[in-house]
Design a protein that fits this description.
- This is VOC family protein.
- By secondary structure, this protein is of the alpha/beta class.
- It has 3 helices and 8 strands, in the order βαβββαβαβββ.
- The strands form 2 sheets. Strands 1-4-3-2 form a 4-stranded mixed beta sheet.
- A hairpin with a 5-residue loop joins strand 7 and strand 8.
- The longest helix is centred in the last third of the chain and has 14 residues.
- It is globular.
C-alpha cells in the first residue's frame, strides 16, 4: 500500500463550536471541504488535514459506534512546538479558546517538555518540545 495522502476524520457534536475553537488556535481552515456535515482544517507545515464530522454522519458512514472521546482516547495527536515558551503560550491559547488542559506544561524525561489538552469534544492533543 502506498497512499498519496493521509488525513483524519473525527466526530464532533457541534460544528460551529469546533470551527470557533480551532480557528482561535490559529489552525488554517480547509474551506473547500466545509459543509453542514463537517468542518476541516490544515495542521502544520505539511498541511495534515483533520476533518471534524458531525458524529451521526461519521457513525452512519463507518456503520459502527464512535468512541466516546470524553471518557476514552481514540487517538492522541502530537503538535510540535519550537520552544518551552511556545508550549506555555499554546497552553494559554487552548484554555482561552475553551479547551481543557489535561496535564499542565511540564518536563518529562530528559529534554522533553509539553502538555496534553482536550478540545471541546474530548479529542486529545499532546503539545511537545524537545
Amino acid at each position: 500500500m502506498n497512499p498519496k495522502k493521509i488525513w483524519s476524520n473525527l466526530a464532533v457534536s457541534d460544528l460551529d463550536r469546533t470551527t470557533k475553537f480551532y480557528t482561535e488556535l490559529g489552525f488554517k481552515p480547509n474551506g473547500a471541504n466545509d459543509s453542514d456535515e463537517l468542518t476541516s482544517f490544515f495542521v502544520g507545515e505539511d498541511h495534515f488535514i483533520i476533518h471534524f464530522f458531525l458524529k451521526n454522519i461519521l457513525q452512519n458512514f463507518l456503520k459502527s459506534e464512535i468512541a466516546d472521546s470524553q471518557s476514552a482516547n481514540e487517538i492522541v495527536f502530537t503538535l510540535s512546538a519550537e520552544s518551552k515558551d511556545q508550549v506555555d503560550h499554546w497552553a494559554k491559547e487552548v484554555e482561552s479558546a475553551g479547551g481543557k488542559i489535561v496535564s499542565k506544561p511540564e518536563e518529562f524525561g530528559k529534554g522533553y517538555y509539553g502538555f496534553v489538552f482536550a478540545d471541546p469534544d474530548g479529542h486529545k492533543f499532546n503539545v511537545f518540545y524537545m
